[in-house]
Amino acid sequence: MLSRARTWESGMSDDERRRLWVQWHKARARWIRQCRENGAVPGPLPEMPPEIRGLRCGVTTKAGTPCRRRDLGAGGRCRLHGGRSTGPRSAEGRRRVTANLPKRAEVHQTP
Asked: Which terminus of the chain, N or C, has fewer Cβ atoms within 10 Å?
């Protein structure tokens, strides 16, 4: 659940801060990719805006409290709350999943 409350230090809502985090993270990833491709530094690293410093995950946990982790990924959430897997994309991956279905059913059957 996203918090709509305004933060006292920046005047921005958590949603706005998270959008700013995603923009900054994409710019940083683009800079790193250019460094690897060109073998040279393309310019100064994009500076982190002060509004997003100390941003926390904020997802409501099972205990009902907001997640306090600060190690955010590209989507602005921690690795525990980053989202569900979309499943296998390739035909080979789908075959592997299908092949393992009977194994899972046998393991989880109750006697």
From this structure: C
